[in-house]
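Hi R.,

Here's the chain you asked about this morning:
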Amino acid sequence: MISPCATSGREQITAPVLQRPLMRNTELVRVMLCVVIVLCVFKSVVVAGEHDLALILLSKSDRAILFDVQHEIEKMGGRALHVFPPDALVATVSERAISALRNDPRIARVSREPIASFRGTKIQSIAVQAWEKVLQNRLAIAQGLYKTSRSATQAQSMQQEQWRTAPPDVLVPPREAFTVPRSVRQSTSSSVPYGADFYDTSEFFFGSVSIGVLIVESAGNAYNWSNSHITETLNGIVAGMDWWVAREPRANLTFVYDIHERVPISAEPIQGSIGDDVTWGAEALAALGYSDDGGVFYNARKYLNDIRSANQTNWATMMFVVESDPAVNLGRFAIGGGYAHSYYGGPWLTMARYSTWAYNFENYFTCVPAHETGHNFYTTDEYNSVKEHGGYFNGPDQDGAECIMNQNSLDGVCDSSRLQLGWRFTGNEFDILNVRPTISLESHIPNPTIDHTPSYNGTAVVGLLPNNNPYGQRHAISLNTITGVEYSLDLSQWLSTTASNPGWDTGSESFSFISSVLPAGTYTFSVRATDNRGSSSDNASDLLAITNSTVTVGEDWNLISSPFRVQDARATILFPGATSSPFAFDGRYITQDTINHGLGYWLKFSAADSIAIDGSELLDDTVHVHGGWNIIGSLAEPFPVNELVAVPPLVVLSSVYGYSSGFGYLPVGLIEPGKGYWIRVNGAGNITMHVPPSGAASAAQTLVMPGQSSDFSRLTFADSTGKVRTLLFTTCATLVHPEYYELPPPIPSSVFDVRFTSQRGIEILSSSSTGLLIETQAVHGPLYVSWKIAWTDRGTILDAGGQSVSPLQLYGTGTAILNEPAADRMTLRLEDQVTHGVARQFALYQSYPNPFNPTTEIVYELAEEARVTLTISDLIGRQVVTLVDNVESEGMHRVVWNAETNQLTAAASGMYFYTIVATPTLNGARRMSTDTRKMLLVR
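And the predicted structure, written out as tokens:
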């Protein structure tokens, strides 16, 4: 409660001092001097770090633009303190941010000083006046000018004399106001706190708060508002809220104002009782369109929820302000006395414009809204000799503390009030923000599963702080947001999941993830969540068994087999999604209708898939083979190739080859379920397959050709679809027997392929020969060529044929692009002398791969030494990153982009343009060369 203060024996104030919309010169000098002191001497008190107060006015009235500017300021490390929709705000901003704002066409004015004259919108005029009051307010705080204007003895005597007629200044809203069940959306940290409902509008004094100001005007003429009185009142309210901002910077308080002047009501409030606000307040709310049958408290909450949503704030509260005259009845309400009161937790406070009865009346317009707003956020009075508890923490007050809640003292906020407001700390965090999130993971059904790429769903929720408020124990809430969820397989590497909504920014997030392909076994999937305060949840886990009852296929052609005994082996039953008939091999390709276990087949699919097969698992099998190439099948468990046994004994004439759509034929050391494999033997017979005891298969590694040795050179070809083929060659005949690396026959369809015409994957290159012939098939141009040459004493030439494509001179490592290969054959040959490639032109080639994720390589060609810049821009022309900015020698050059920006952040999915500008350094007469191409990043 606020103590009434007698005026007997003291000078009677007969009229308030009004602040004029436009200041006189003397006033301007005084305020500007205040600003200099605030911004220079007391800068450490006003704001933290290198940020200064600034008034920002928009070029046009647009609420959406205003909130965009507010959010951009916050992204630059600043903070909006007072927001006046739709076109003005006061914020703490850095010098860098001020420069950016002044260059922003949406901004009409950025000021850090008082404004002597101003022409703008009504709201901007209010903001300008409030801005000057904020500067004065910060100066008063910095200099300690807010001191109690009357001694405790005087206050006590005035209490004894007048308190008998004064109503209490804080009440509890009627219980029935909370009986109607309502809900509001539980959204981002910039709006309704997670867990809050319709009535939770004024809980913790933390974050952003919408302030509804209703300046009511009666139908009579006894007490009519003047423009100067309205300005004075609004300035005082902003100063009172700014006092709170400066008292606890860590609370990150932002106030967004919803101002309604001269809201019509029938009675003259100051001539009645302060408690009549439930009657004329209902009229004022009805004038704003809030007149449902739920009653005045319900309608007030409805209004608060609406402005909270419109202003994107965490909380909302409101003020009714009535006109009064300190020369008449001391400015008090005529019946019962008093000049201000509020409700624990809101929804509103009521105050007369001015009262000489008010304690600390010299700072009336700052201390009264500040004190009563404290009540709206559950703080209790600190002077009434009653031990009271308030706030979520059910904290006790401490009468006599130097505190805004004790006789409106603007000296500060005492510890007991801070506790009731929610300003208690654990470590460096407010308790409301210091609760760890929780996470749940839905168990995979069924378990065991035949799905080798299991998918999961779950939900992460921010930690909620329990409500122990003695005035209304309603809901546990939080201002935090979930910022990410990770999953791990057997607690190894942690990987990101996908949010169900567009991004991680709410208090409750549903998530999902799909595992990579896993062999049969038992796995533990774990998840953990992180909130925006950096707190992590405990892990939630699911133990999942995976069995081999599926066959996984990729898009396009696959070498497949059935590792199961099935009742119906028809291909249309086992693989209904196939787009071709099965091709078996018996010295030539033949089409069949069935997929028999033990054998392998070519089968084409339009998309990758995991296909469940209903059958009994095969752990051993026997397949008949003939001399030459054969396609064999697999078993239900992986096993090493050395478990393949020929009966009678046969000579295996090649590696065992598997197939990858991206890389073609590759020698393998492990036979995997559902795959088909090529093997070449010297005669007819049977091959038996057997799954060894558990653990033996895992020891076998996938084999590779011996090209990893530094004695081997390699040529790698790739087409625009992303398919890659690699050929190995050497000049040393003793290193390898090429016959062992003969490649299987090509796919029974026109599919990209590159191989030596000898059908081998490794060859011997001799200077005495005419070279090695290379044949290509189904190239989707351009054809990308990269090489690594193991020798330096001789030259290596790749001749693509034709007049338009000159031979490539290969040395060391390099990359080139053949845009127009003249034929489907090329020649690889040796030269006795080493030659170095000379670029023939300026050219920028298409990046590879494209589309890509997350890296792609860009190749360009220079005819002479040049100053080169290579930049990447997005669709609207904004530069994302500079990859090259230096002098480059003539020849071929390549650079890799890892999809990062200049700020080392990940670039978003989408179309990008890469541009090269090359200016010759040795021939000034040559003109600058430039080119641009596009590429697609798909994450």
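The longest helix spans residues 122-143.

Let me know if you need anything else.
M.
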